[in-house]
Amino acid sequence: MILEKLGSSLKKATDKIANAVFLDKSLVDSVVRDLQRALIEADVNIQLVKEISEKIKQSALDERIKGIEKKEHIIKLMHDSLIKILGKGREVELGKKNVWLFVGLYGAGKTTTIGKIGAYYSKRGKKVCAVGLDVHRPAAMEQLKQVCANVKIDCFVDANASDALVVWKEFKEKTKDYDLVLVDSAGRDALDADLIKEIKSVGKLVGASERFLVIQADIGQTAKKQAAAFKEAVGITGVVITRMDSTAKGGGALTACAEAGVGVVWIGVGEKPVDLELFEPEGFLSRMLGMGDLKALMDKIHSVVDAKDIKAAQARLAEGKFTMDDFKTQLDSMGQLGSFDKIMGMVPGMSKIKEKVGEDVLESQQEKTKRWKYCIESMTPAERENPSLLEKETSRIQRIAHGSGCTTSDVRALLKQFKMLKEMIGMQSGLAEGGIDNKMMMKLARKFGKKMRF
Ligand SMILES: Nc1nc2c(ncn2[C@@H]2O[C@H](COP(=O)(O)OP(=O)(O)OP(=O)(O)O)[C@@H](O)[C@H]2O)c(=O)[nH]1
Ligand SMILES: [Mg+2]
Q1: What is the mean pLDDT of residues 13-26?
Q2: Ligand 1: nearest atom to the Cα of 147
Q3: Which atom of ligand 1 is nearest to the CA of 143?
Q4: CATH number of 98-287: 1.10.443.10, 3.40.630.30, 3.40.50.300, 3.40.1620.10?
């Protein structure tokens, strides 16, 4: 299916960006090339592909945005571009009176779609019927009857009638017993004056609450002209794109509808009654561009870090009393989290850094933590209570370094980390309360990222 293919290409592109240590020009170029290939393969308008490529390249070179923020920015940009391509979709809800008219050219899939939608709502406990107003094609009535029998919904057709309006008048009263009335109309070769006239008068007569245009994905980008023409002529309220399963041109049809400003409600992905999907590009894309294993990381932190400890530390912090002893407790809980490399593996984009820097550097990170603990132990109670004493007096730093078997730069690094952690604890309030949102996750991820300076 076209969406899945696009989605997986997009996922590959975002992974490349997320995993890159440096966003250099050649990397961005290669990601943009992959993306272009995927979009063009999906029949997306070439002009649009160019625009998207330019935007991504520009923001990649934008010096104002840096580091992980830049990655996020580009990934979000891709997401937004894809939404632009796919359109926002459109949700339909059943109102009090629901008469849905299906219009479209020959063989677009109107009758088949009515069967699918009928099945969908009747399975959800609604009373659904279909009315056949295609009086032009001799076999149309019989086809609709079969489709309805297949999904067990009631069907009203008059095989002898030659006027759609007469047929409607015949069954109008009966349709009042139903929650949803699906009206099948006749197709034509092209949207000509006759067809417009018929759709308009049928729509008015049946009091259609929705007018859905059914188009087949095979027509690709030409769907734009069709969607725009139908929109202009009969004010369609939504689109169903059929045969998304059997063509590579689905991207073209979707873009075309987005450009014509008509919302796609469903897509048909096969001939069977179950082969209908609600079109939800936002949900689909956010699943594809998920936040990596950040959630898993947060769960892990949550399970290790005692909420009570954090609360207590925060309370002390609020009173300006966060001390080196508190820092040591925090270092211990970081130790329980597993080694730094495990934490890094869970932050999107960090796993590749891990590979690049190699185990030995990570080892030394852990070594460093250990030395910090020795440093803290060599401090006087007054220094632990108020580490800013150390910043003022170099002799104290020298004494601690000497006493703990560390270097003065170890002690300085410790002081730096202490400050950073103080900040982090300020942000962990969400954790302590049990709730954490995506924004907070990203903030924390950045903090972890910054901590890993090599
Ligand atoms: N593969 C595939 N085939 C579909 C899909 N939707 C419809 N079809 C097929 O397309 C053909 C035409 O479908 P119909 O439902 O008869 O189309 P229609 O718009 O009612 O056609 P007219 O009444 O002649 O205007 C049938 O063979 C369907 O089985 C789909 O989502 N995927
Ligand atoms: Mg039909």
Answers
A1: 75
A2: 15
A3: 16
A4: 3.40.50.300
